[in-house]
Amino acid sequence: MSHHYIQFTDVHYAYPNGYEALRGITFRVTHGEKVALLGMNGAGKSTVLLHTNGLLLPSKGEVNVGGIPVTKKTAPGVRRAVGMLFQNPDDQLFMPTVEEDVAFGPLNMGLEMAEVQRRVREALARTGAGGLEKRSPFQLSGGQKKSVAMATILSMEPEILVMDEPTAELDLAARNKVIDIISRYTHTCLIATHDLDLACGLCPRSILIDGGKVVADGPTEEVIARLKEMI
């Protein structure tokens, strides 16, 4: 993938129950941008994120990642480039130990064991989760789980990072750790968040979604002002 961008073009999506969550979403996140995705609960933010790596596919329109249209056929390859952090880390952690969870992705990429071990070690160090290798993910605190979930993504060395409410339900120390990780990530980043301080501090640009449509796209402070008018 030569260019780490995300392009949505007139994307519509209806869930099996008929609910139309996205109604003509169009935007582009270019290489190296950090962009916040803002909106009220139910606006469609999570649905947008699930389209970035083919976990959902459009009912109409196209999602293109780095020059590759996201389809059922291309989704496995796209997922190697797009690392996604779910809002609830329990949705992301499923192996008996932290070490096995962080190694899962690199092992499935077919990497040599020495490379897998290097990635696991470095990802845990970057997220402040070093020393948790032999712990069960299910015995960790909420902040520790979030750090380990982030490590499972970073071990894949993705070209694009997509996050759903990365600071939700974290204490101040854990929140600051997550913000530090994001701030040092140099590739493309799309963050769905209600944390307006995070958006202002990390994302020069924000996209505001309401009712499955983009209603504002521009400098974060201006978009937040629009959001506050809607509350």
| CATH architecture heading | 3-Layer(aba) Sandwich
Rg calculated over all Cα atoms: 17 Å
CATH topology: Rossmann fold
How would you classify the helix and strand content by structural class?
A: alpha/beta
Main sheet, how many strands, which sense, barrel?
6 strands, mixed
Strand content: 25-35%
Q: What is the CATH class name?
A: Alpha Beta
> What order do the SSEs take from the amino end to the carboxyl end, as H and E?
EEEHEEHEHHHEHEHEEH
Shape: globular
How many independent structural domains? 1
CATH homologous superfamily classification: P-loop containing nucleotide triphosphate hydrolases
- Overall mean pLDDT: 94
Residues in helices, as a percent range: 25-40%
Chain oligomer state: single chain
**Unreliable sequence segments:** none
Explain what you see.
- The chain is an alpha/beta fold and 231 residues long.
- The protein has 8 helices and 10 strands.
- Helix 3 crosses helix 4 and helix 3 packs parallel to helix 5 (142-154).
- It has helices at residues 45-51, 75-81, 98-108, 113-126, 142-154, 172-184, 196-202, 220-230, and strands at 6-14, 20-29, 34-38, 60-65, 68-69, 82-85, 160-164, 188-192, 205-210, 213-219.
- It has a single domain (6-230), classed as Rossmann fold (3-Layer(aba) Sandwich).
- Strand 9 (205-210) and strand 10 (213-219) form a beta hairpin.
- It has a 6-stranded mixed β-sheet, sandwiched between helices.
